[in-house]
Specification:
Layout lengths: L6 E4 L4 H12 L5 E2 L11 H11 L3 E4 L7 H6 L1 H21 L4 E5 L28 H21 L2 E7 L1 E3 L12 H14 L5 E4 L5 E2 L1 E3 H13 L6 E4 L5 E2 H12 L5 E4 L14 H6 L7 H23 L1
Parallel strand pairs: 1-2, 1-3, 3-4, 4-5, 5-10, 6-9, 7-12
Antiparallel strand pairs: 8-11
Helix pairs in contact: 1-7, 2-4, 4-5, 6-8, 6-10, 8-10
Bound molecules: NADPH dihydro-nicotinamide-adenine-dinucleotide phosphate (NDP) and ligand F7E.
């Protein structure tokens, strides 16, 4: 890939998109472009078509989506289904119609069936029912995977789909209603420590298992996907290691230095019991995650402390 290739990063202000931007800049790519949702609403098909015609990017990285944790997914099914379908349809079909040869689509590990065998292999897609708390988002993401696969099959273009596990890191969403578990725990333990080690309330039973990938590893795999041609459409991205939500809570509690009680709120959903990625296909292609969870949590907590004021203004 030439360093002056015009690369459009959809969602470049988000946690993942901004990490991809920084990673590409660090590697010397000079022609990056992005638009905020205010400048270009990706749900608007005509606006996206005009954007492609005017800007003519050569490569598209799709990190734009309506994203949220278990409660947001469960509370706003229509937005998670429809906005994601609109955004990705406009981006994928617009890119295809404009003759763009390379497209990287980001999905999520929740596309796999709720009770699929573990670890999750790419071929388990569409083999049984989805997890009800996020089936709306998952159905949109599955449609994106299939759209890229259809373009690859019918038109022989390098459209690929990366399926990340749960992500975390700098610029994550720390809003307690809409965030994922890891940033929520950092904030809850920090605020409880500041209030004299008050008790922390967490959701569900603590028994579900999750796998976490640092966003800088995620950006690194996107750069890898950009710089290499792939033989297939769908690749899992993760560390291949998971832990229970209770173990995650203990790790974050220790990192933050909170010494109070943890209360589990069983009125909140657990979600899928386990979704560990089988990452061997991506490893065979030549990429592996590098950042250990304990190090990534330390780094994210440090970022949280340095940015408390700014993220409160932006996200909450
Ligand atoms: N976070 C996670 O744990 C995981 C994320 N992913 C995937 O990674 C990708 C990025 O997620 P993440 O960075 O966490 O999410 P963020 O919420 O941090 O960022 C999402 C981005 O999408 C943009 N966006 C949303 N709606 C629109 C719209 N209508 N028009 C234009 N832009 C829009 C936002 O733009 P703006 O800021 O300008 O409003 C924002 O920059 C998504 O595809 C997500 O599904 C996959 C697995 C796990
Ligand atoms: C990335 C992924 O993210 C989502 O799936 P999820 O992994 O279930 O999401 P989550 O991170 O919000 O929760 C993980 C686990 O953690 C528990 N939990 C405890 N205490 C808190 C808490 O305070 N906040 C949150 N959010 N969860 C908590 C929670 O009850 C659950 O058991 C989907 O949107 C899906 O679409 C998707 O792609």
């Amino acid at each position: 890939m030439k360093k002056e290739t015009k690369i459009y990063i959809a969602g470049h202000r988000g946690m993942v998109g901004s990490a991809i931007w920084r990673a590409l800049e660090a590697k010397g790519y000079t022609n990056l472009m992005g638009k905020s949702s205010k400048e270009l609403d990706l749900r608007n098909q005509a606006a996206v078509k005009d954007f492609y015609a005017t800007e003519q990017p050569e490569v598209v990285i799709d990190a734009a989506a309506r994203v949220g944790g278990i409660l947001a997914n469960n509370s706003y099914p229509y937005q998670f289904l429809m906005e994601n379908l609109q955004i990705q349809n406009n981006l994928i079909d617009g890119a295809h119609q404009s003759g763009i040869g390379k497209f990287i689509f980001l999905g999520s590990s929740c596309i796999y069936p709720k009770l699929a065998p573990q670890p999750l292999k790419e071929e388990y897609l569409l083999t049984s029912s989805l997890e009800p708390t996020n089936e709306w988002y998952a159905i949109a993401k599955i449609t994106g995977v299939k759209a890229c696969e259809a373009i690859r099959k019918q038109f022989d273009k390098d459209y690929i789909s990366l399926m990340p596990t749960n992500l975390y890191g700098p610029f994550d969403n720390f809003d307690l209603e809409t965030s994922h578990v890891l940033p929520a725990m950092i904030r809850k333990f920090h605020e409880a420590k500041e209030s004299g080690n008050a008790a922390v309330e967490l959701w569900g039973s603590g028994t579900p298992m999750r796998e976490f990938l640092h966003v800088e590893d995620m950006a690194d795999v996107v750069v890898f996907a950009l710089e290499n041609e792939f033989q297939d459409n769908l690749y899992n991205v993760g560390t291949g290691v998971d832990l229970t939500i209770k173990e995650l809570a203990e790790l974050i509690q220790q990192t933050v230095g909170h010494e109070g009680e943890i209360i589990w709120d069983s009125s909140k959903p657990d979600g899928t019991p386990r979704k560990l990625m089988d990452v061997s296909k991506m490893a065979d292609a030549g990429w592996k995650a590098k950042i250990k969870l304990a190090d990534g949590i330390k780094d994210t907590y440090q970022w949280f402390l340095e940015n408390i004021d700014s993220f409160k203004q932006v996200k909450i």
